[in-house]
From TrEMBL, chain A:
Membrane topology field: Multi-pass membrane protein
Protein's cellular compartments: Cell membrane
Ranges of residues in domain ABC transmembrane type-2: 94-333
Similarity-based family: Belongs to the ABC-2 integral membrane protein family.
Pfam families per UniProt: ABC2_membrane_3
Taxonomic superkingdom: Bacteria
Entry annotated with the keyword Hydrolase: no
Designated name of the protein: ABC transporter permease
Spans traversing the lipid bilayer: 20-37, 141-164, 190-214, 220-242, 263-285, 305-328
Source organism per UniProt: Catenulispora subtropica
From TrEMBL, chain B:
Keywords attached to this entry: ATP-binding, Nucleotide-binding
Region of interest: Disordered: 219-262
InterPro entries: AAA+_ATPase, ABC_transporter-like_ATP-bd, ABC_transporter-like_CS, P-loop_NTPase
Name under which the protein is recorded: ABC transporter domain-containing protein
PROSITE patterns in alphabetical order: ABC_TRANSPORTER_1 (PS00211), ABC_TRANSPORTER_2 (PS50893)
Species per Swiss-Prot/TrEMBL record: Catenulispora subtropica
Keyword check for ATP-binding: yes
């Protein structure tokens, strides 16, 4: 039995990825659930408009964080600010009434719930009116995020596994000696996963709208552009993972290590606004965070294209960076091995035979 | 360095040195691969056989020496362990994929496929998944895929290792036919009876060429003295079992009263390796 235990420890010690998982995962989960797992939003960006804007703004307490006061702005302009995602609440005041209407962005579920609760405790100062998701249905918020999660899953995990299978069975070596250009092999390997992920994207979006009544308020083309950029990022991650994995098990480990933080820290489950700043920045380097901004904005709020330029630009940058790195590494696998300086050039040693 | 060459240049590796993982895997190794001939590379584990073949098909670059081979599309490569077969594709689908890579289609592909499947005894398995085939059948499929486009240079890495004797006969028939069709065949093998059937043979040990030439010339150059008996006649470290007999070897000419025997390729390779080790120790 001791021999068995010793052998297991020896194998574990040499399996650096599993060891890293054993050490990193508990720390990661501790940090995430300690600092990020918070559904209560304590600060909501708020715009106050209308004739009594200054007076009402002075009366607003936490969680309302008044970022803009525009006495001359109209309700329609306030609604546009919500649509652009600039604020979570827009308070519309009138000259005659002491009660103002608080327009609440229902596409930010937990922010909206906090805002509704705060209006009820405002002593009649605010009357809530929820836009974009009037009944605050969880499914309406989850479906746009789920679209991204499924693409991340297929793009990263399934792609990495599929590419590593070629290496594991030795056929990657065979492809390298066949009369294919490296670009033929790379495009040929990635295109099917791109198509499959795109089909899943359409399927989930259509089924989500049909089964759960999730609206698709915005521009389909912008949604397609965001999805394509996001797909390039996650496919690139899958290819990158495949180039540093020798087995499908290793690829799965690494892919899960990239997908799991995206599930927990992209704002899909826990609102980014409620996370501690020390953890929130992690969310802002994850591609799913930006896809969520796009899909949520387009499907629920009909967010204008200009308001999505930031997430689209970030995804484009990520796609260029990750995909280029992935292609370069994959090309290296297909290229002949370069000679490395010999430690003992004069003394021949055993070769792979 | 690797460069596409014509067969008039003579294909092969010429004075090639390869460094892998900081150690010299091959040192100044020359292997000619003439058209219409089978050139065998033999040697023990870690001798450098696979490294040499991978260098020949352009997968490893040498630090010095010259490699001459046809362009990629005129080479056929069968990696070791039938790993050149896509196991989740059927036999026919494997053929289709490799044929597409070589722009083979239509009647030419159909005829070639029928011919190869028949020769390899795989006709009845054409619709089976490659992963479901026996080891020997997979090896034969890998061979068929390597030769599908009638390459000028065919490189085979231990094509018959782990294959049953009947499948080995089939494989050899296919190899001989390829050579007869004017293909230059280079194959690594651990079966020394196969090496004796080749036109030329390269004996490798730890990256160094111990002998290179026609098998009968290599046999004739067996170093030292080889005897056979029921027990070791000298240093047990220099003896080995062959069937019910024990071979004994020592450097230099026969001792008085010794009855030397002629070496076959297996004895010869062992004698060459022992002689090299003794020379290294000295």
């Amino acid at each position: 039995m001791w021999a068995m235990i010793l052998k297991e420890f020896l194998e574990l010690r040499r399996d650096k990825r599993t060891m890293a998982m054993i050490i990193v995962l508990p720390l990661l989960l501790l940090v995430i659930f300690g600092y990020a797992a918070n559904f209560r939003v304590d600060s909501i960006k708020t715009e106050v408009v209308g004739p009594s804007a200054s007076r009402v703004a002075a009366q607003l307490k936490a969680p309302f964080d008044v970022t803009e006061v525009e006495a001359g702005a109209t309700e329609s302009q306030a609604e546009d600010a919500l649509r652009r995602g600039e604020v979570g609440v827009a308070v519309v005041t009138t000259a005659s009434s002491t009660t103002s209407i608080a327009l609440i962005d229902g596409s930010q579920l937990f922010t909206a719930e906090s805002a509704v609760a705060a209006t009820q405790e405002s002593g009649g100062l605010l009357k809530p009116q929820i836009l974009f998701n009037p009944t605050l249905k969880t499914s309406w918020v989850m479906v746009p995020a789920l679209v991204g999660l499924i693409m991340a899953f297929i793009g990263t995990l399934v792609t990495a596994m599929g590419l590593v299978r070629e290496r594991q069975t030795g056929t990657l070596e065979q492809l390298a000696v066949m009369p294919f250009r490296p670009s033929d092999v790379i495009v040929g390997k990635i295109a099917p996963y791109f198509v499959l992920a795109a089909v899943d994207l359409i399927l989930v979006t259509v089924l989500g709208t049909l089964l759960f009544g999730v609206p698709f308020a915005g521009n389909v083309l912008v949604f397609a552009l965001g999805s394509a950029l996001f797909l390039f990022v996650v496919l690139g991650l899958g290819v990158l993972i495949s180039t540093v994995s020798q087995t499908q098990g290793q690829a799965m480990q690494m892919a899960l290590m990239t997908v799991m933080p995206q599930v927990l820290l992209s704002g899909m489950i826990f609102p980014l606004a409620a996370m501690a700043p020390g953890v929130r920045w992690i969310g802002y380097i994850l591609p799913l965070t930006y896809f969520n901004m796009i899909s949520n904005g387009i499907m629920l709020r009909d967010a204008p294209f200009t308001s999505l330029l930031l997430p689209l630009g970030v995804l484009a940058g990520m796609a260029a960076l990750v995909f280029t790195a992935a292609v370069l590494r994959f090309r290296r696998d297909l290229a002949p091995s370069m000679p490395k300086p010999a430690k003992q050039a004069a003394t021949p040693a055993g070769a792979a035979s | 360095m690797t460069r596409p060459g014509s067969d008039t240049d003579g294909w092969g590796t010429f004075g090639v040195t390869i460094v892998r993982g900081g150690a010299t895997a091959l040192k100044d190794v020359t292997l000619a691969a003439p058209r219409g001939q089978v050139s065998a590379v033999v040697g023990g584990d870690g001798a450098g056989k696979t490294t040499l073949l991978r260098a020949l098909v352009g997968r490893i670059l040498p630090v010095s020496g010259r490699i001459s081979a046809p362009p990629t599309e005129r080479c056929g490569f069968m990696p070791t362990g039938a790993s050149g077969v896509w196991q989740d594709l059927s036999v026919n689908e494997n053929f289709d994929f490799v044929a597409a890579a070589h722009h083979l289609s239509g009647g030419a592909l159909a005829d070639r496929r029928t011919d190869l499947l028949e020769q390899a005894g795989l006709t009845g398995a054409a619709d089976r998944l490659a992963g479901d085939l026996s080891g020997g059948m997979r090896q034969k499929l890998a061979f068929c895929l390597a030769i599908l486009h009638r390459p000028d240079l065919l490189v085979l890495d231990e094509p018959s290792t782990g294959v049953d004797p009947v499948s080995r006969v089939d494989l050899w028939r296919l190899i001989a036919k390829a050579a007869a069709e004017h293909t230059a065949v280079v194959m690594a093998t651990t079966y020394l009876d196969e090496a004796e059937r080749a036109s030329t043979c390269l004996v490798l040990d730890r990256g160094v060429a111990l002998a290179h030439g026609a098998p009968d010339k290599i046999l004739a150059s067996t170093p030292g003295t080889l005897t056979s008996g029921d027990a070791p006649t000298g240093d047990p470290e220099l003896s080995w079992r062959r069937g019910r007999q024990t071979r004994s070897w020592h450097p230099g000419p026969p001792h008085p009263g010794e009855q030397p025997i002629g070496a076959d390729m297996e004895d010869c390779v062992i004698a060459l390796t022992l002689a090299e080790q003794q020379a290294g120790a000295a």
